[in-house]
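wait is this the right file?? whatever heres the structure
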């Protein structure tokens, strides 16, 4: 009977032993750029920002699939530049309160407003994607109706996108929103709310919301500022009383 060669594989060090000879191999295992970014995200603290350049659209979409609809993350993409932000509890409290204020206005004034949270808006042909902190359909509410998922290749963009900008860096996302055709942005920096309208491809400051004219930057600023001394319940009650006084 002929002698059989014995082969042993040690996968951890990739040592190949054939009979009495050993051959050391370098690992050929590689991870994609998206997987590398996921690993970096896992190590990020709350309220942190990661910016990566030279990211392909495929890696951007792979990253979105990997993290899913993860709470506590906002991801934007602009022609190869990827920005990932982790959220603080303060950031999320402002987002929640803005959503509640709009909800109270909607029901008390019988205005159809649909809330779609931080839905991912992206268009491959424009190489742009973004996740607002909140978004609302007002003029286009009837067009999206009861849809669970918005397909931005065919559906209209939200009428309002909200950016909680505690780092003062959301202005860099404005060209993404403009390319996607979002007509109005509310930007809150922790001190004041600024409303922007899209005009001829540029966002310009506006005193009041075009979609919800009762809401001005100063009104929203005033109610958000009350979080320093009042809880959310009392703020919403005060907002209801303010609405009653408006003609």
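ok assuming it is, sequence goes like this
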């Amino acid at each position: 009977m002929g002698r059989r060669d014995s082969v042993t594989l040690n996968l951890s060090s990739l040592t190949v032993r054939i009979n009495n000879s050993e051959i050391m191999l370098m690992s050929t295992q590689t991870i994609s750029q998206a997987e590398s970014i996921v690993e970096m995200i896992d190590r990020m603290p709350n309220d942190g920002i990661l910016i990566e350049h030279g990211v392909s659209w495929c890696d951007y979409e792979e990253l979105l699939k990997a993290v899913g609809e993860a709470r506590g993350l906002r991801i934007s993409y602009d022609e190869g530049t990827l920005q990932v932000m982790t959220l603080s509890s303060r950031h999320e409290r402002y987002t929640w309160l803005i959503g509640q204020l709009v909800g109270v206005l909607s029901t008390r004034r019988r205005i159809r407003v649909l809330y779609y949270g931080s839905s991912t808006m992206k268009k491959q042909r424009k190489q742009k994607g973004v996740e607002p902190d909140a978004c609302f359909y007002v003029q286009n509410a009837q067009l999206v109706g009861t849809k669970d998922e918005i397909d931005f290749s065919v559906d209209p963009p939200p009428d309002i996108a909200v950016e909680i900008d505690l780092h003062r860096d959301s202005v860099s996302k404005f060209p993404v929103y403009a390319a996607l055709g979002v007509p109005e942005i509310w930007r809150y920096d922790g001190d004041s709310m600024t409303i922007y309208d899209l005009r001829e491809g540029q966002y310009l400051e506006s005193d009041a919301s075009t979609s919800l004219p009762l809401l001005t930057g100063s009104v929203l600023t005033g109610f958000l500022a009350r979080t320093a001394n009042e809880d959310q319940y009392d703020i919403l009650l005060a907002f209801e009383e303010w609405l009653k006084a408006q003609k």
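Residues 54 and 70 are 23 Å apart (CA to CA). so i think its the right one actually
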